[in-house]
Amino acid sequence: VQLQASGGGLVQAGGSLRLSCVASGRTFSDLGMAWFRRGPGKEREFVAGISFGGGVTTYRDSVKGRFAITRDNAKNTAYLQMSSLKPEDTAVYYCAAATGKYGSSVFTSYDYWGQGTLVTVSS
């Protein structure tokens, strides 16, 4: 499975960005998808996850109400819509895929990783 993440950039605090992750090499609807991030000097952390059909989503507390994870199985793509961005959201964002499972916040649960896309939020 190959994952290609895109959509990062520089945005002012309070702004919005949408990240995309296109998957190839496997039936997309078999994959639980997630977004992780690693901020400057920080450990990698779970941001959001979504089930195979998109009906179940999970978020870390600090992004609830601001971020939304979705997926379009017809386009083999997962998205992370980020709104009301804060400087502390600055990080490299990675999409991840798990075969046959979803919802875990533990990075070792995921089998495949994208290359990361940088999000910088200025104050």
Topology, pairings included?
Blueprint: E1 2-6, E2 9-12, E3 17-24, E4 31-38, E5 44-50, E6 57-59, E7 67-72, E8 77-82, E9 91-99, E10 112-113, E11 117-122
Parallel strand pairs: 2-11
Antiparallel strand pairs: 1-3, 3-8, 4-5, 4-9, 5-6, 7-8, 9-10, 9-11
Outline the structure in words.
With 123 residues, the protein is mostly beta strands. The chain has no helices and eleven strands. It has strands at 2-6, 9-12, 17-24, 31-38, 44-50, 57-59, 67-72, 77-82, 91-99, 112-113, 117-122. The strands form two sheets. Strands 2, 4, 5, 6, 9, 10 and 11 form a seven-stranded mixed beta sheet that branches. A four-stranded antiparallel beta sheet has the order 1-3-8-7, with no helix packed on it. Strand 5 and strand 6 (57-59) form a beta hairpin. The protein is globular. The termini are far apart. The mean pLDDT is 97.
Order of helices and strands: EEEEEEEEEEE
Number of helices: 0
State the major sheet: 7 strands, mixed
- Radius of gyration, rounded? 13 Å
User: How much helical structure, as a percent, in the residues?
Assistant: under 10%
Shape: globular
Q: Output the structural class.
A: mainly beta
- The N- to C-terminal Cα distance equals 37 Å
Which stretches are poorly predicted, pLDDT < 50 over at least 5 residues? none
pLDDT averaged residue by residue: 97
Strand content: over 45%
